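Async update (no meeting this week)

Hi team, since we skipped the sync, here's where things stand on the single-chain job. The sequence we agreed to prioritize is pasted below, unchanged from the tracker. I ran it this morning and attached the output directly underneath so nobody has to dig for it. Comments welcome in thread, and please keep replies under the output.
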Amino acid sequence: DKATNETPKSRRRRSEKDIEQIS
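Output:
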């Protein structure tokens, strides 16, 4: 996954955005 290459901060931010999109 791209998140793996991204920094922890980016990963967390992406997770939040993904959750919003999934909702």
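Quick observations from my side:
The chain has a mean pLDDT of 68.
The longest helix spans residues 8-22.
Reply here if anything looks off.
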